[in-house]
Every structure is written in structure tokens, then in C-alpha cells.
Amino acid sequence: MKKMKKILVLATVLFGLNTITNAQVSVTEDNNIKNFRFGLKGDLSIDWLSPDNDKKFESNGVGIGYDWGLQLEFRLNKTLSFVSGLSLKNSSGSLNYFSASSADSTFYILDKDEEFVPFDTAAANVATNTVYFLQSRKYSINYVNIPLMLKMKTNEIGYLTYFGQFGANIGIKTKARVSDESKLVNGNVVNKEKLDLTDGVQPIRFGITIGGGAEYNFSGSTSMFFGLQYNHYFTNTLTSEKNEKYLRKFDSTEGTFDNVGAKAMPGSVSLTVGILF
Fold first, then answer.
1. Average pLDDT over the chain, rounded to whole?
2. Which of 171, 186, 198, 267 could form a disulfide with 143 if both were Cys (CB 3.0 to 4.6 A apart)?
């Protein structure tokens, strides 16, 4: 009887070890990618601004932007992950005010420290301030960027895994600077560099991102990745008409200075390179 019990105990232990071994193999096979990954990334982008009213200003070509920061990935299943992170993004774009189809002129005022002054008749007549006739303006805007995306991956093919991703892109403005080509009242052309226009740009921008790329596996879960994304934004870059303090259009018909209220929607195409652990 005792011998029988020993056989049963031994059989039970062997069965348990076999179950644990099989479970470990299964876990290893099914989870060859960690459920949580993190890494660093950098982007280089081609940016632009698209006005919705060419009578007030028009696009003046593209600019080069960049982005760098932390990427986080949370695995939902074998082929689907949730991607987020935190990065510092610089976006650029240029607008042409002089060549717009409207004959009206756009003006702004700077004080002696080259800071923007809220536009009114009194400010324009003060001896220490200068009125400028705006020709073109290049924007350089810094954001804290937060992506919220879904990433769909293929199985590993050789050392490469291909992916597609889409989702939301949220930017929180930290600083905005502009470089202007302007004219003085006497007709002389002047260039103003890196003027602070932080409160002349919307504080939040929201858009969608769609793109794809590939990962190259080095060892274990460590991979280098690269991708190409299209970013489309739904929010106006510029301050809304009711909050515009600095720019004024001169209405030659009415003889009045009116708020500049046209929208300029941002967009970009970006190339991303990074590493995940």
C-alpha cells in the first residue's frame, strides 16, 4: 500500500513538473515580445501651414521640423500594441501676407525692446514704438507632444517586423517665435528674427497620425525601428480672430484697421528613427 502511495506521489510530481514545463514553453513561445517596451526616438519632418482664406494670407512654402523623446508601447495581443510617449516637438511653417489677393495691408507694432504691442491708434502714435508693414512670416513653434496610437505588427520575417499605426496626436505649446520680413512706413525693408509670439499661437493642437515602418531585431526584445508618418491637424495654429491683439488689416475701402481672422491649419510628413528595449 505504501509502495502504491509512493508511486502515486511520484506520478503526481512528474505530472506537475511536466505541466509547469509545458506552461513555461508556452509562455515563452507566446510572449517572445515583452508586454511593455520603452525606448528613444527622433523625428525629422517637413511642415506646412494651409490658410483657409487666401485673401488675407497664403502659404509661403514648407519648413523643417524635428522631434525627440520617449516612446512607450503596451502590448494588447501578439500583433496589436498601444503606443504613447512624451517628446519635444518643433514645428515650422511660413505665410505670405504681401502676395495675398487682397489689396489690404497687414500691420503690427513693436516697442523699443522688439516686443509685440497690442494694436490700437494710441500705440501706433507713440514715439518709442514702431509700426511695421508685414510681408511674410516664418513660424517656429515648440510643443510637448503626446501620441495616442494603435500599432499593428506582422510576425517576424527574418530580422524584420513590419507595422502600421494610426491614432491621435496632441501638442501642448510651450513657445512660439516668428521671423518677419517687413517694411517700415518709409518703404525700407527690414528683417526681424526670433520675435516672441507665444501668446499669438493656439495653446493646444490636435490631429491624427497614420503611417508605417519596420523594426530590426538585434537581440531579445531590443529593436531599432524606422517609420514614415503623415500628420493631419484639425486645430488652427493662429490665435482666433476675437483674441488677436497684434495683427491688423487696413481696409482701404473703409479706412479702418480690422482684426486678422483667417485660419492656418498645420500638417506634416515625418520620418522617425528610434530604438526599443
1. 85
2. 171
Nearest-angstrom CA–CA distance, 223 and 209: 22
CB neighbour list of residue 21: distance below 8 Å, 6 or more residues apart: none
Residue 264 half-sphere exposure toward CB, CA atoms < 13 A: 27
Give the Cβ contact number of residue 276 at 10 Å. 20
The one-character DSSP state at 53 is: -
How would you write 139-184 as a 3-class SS string? EEEEEEEEEEEEEEECCCECCEEEEEEEEEEEEEEEEEEEEEEEEC
Helix (H, G, I), strand (E, B) or coil at 5: helix
Residue 130 corresponds to which cell in the numbers above? Answer: 514702431
Beta bridge partner(s), residue 274: 41, 225
CA atoms of 127 and 149, how far apart (whole Å): 53
Q: Give the burial class of 65: count Cβ atoms within 10 A of its Cβ; 0-12 exposed, 13-18 middle, 19 or more buried.
A: buried
State the CB neighbour count (10 A cutoff) for residue 25: 10
Report whether 245 contacts 25 (CB < 8 A). no
Using alpha carbons, select from 142, 48, 44 the residue that is nearest to residue 93.
Answer: 48
Q: In whole angstroms, what is the distance from residue 146 CA to residue 171 CA?
A: 6
Q: Are 263 and 234 in contact (CB under 8 A)?
A: no
Q: What is the pLDDT of residue 55?
A: 65
3-state secondary structure of 7: helix
Of residues 140 and 57, more confidently modeled: 140
- pTM above the 0.70 mark? yes
Question: How far apart (Å, rounded) are the C-alpha atoms in residues 145 and 84?
Answer: 10
Q: What is the pLDDT of residue 221?
A: 83
Residues in a beta bridge with 227:
213, 272
Question: Are residues 135 and 182 in contact, defined by beta-carbon separation less than 8 angstroms?
Answer: yes
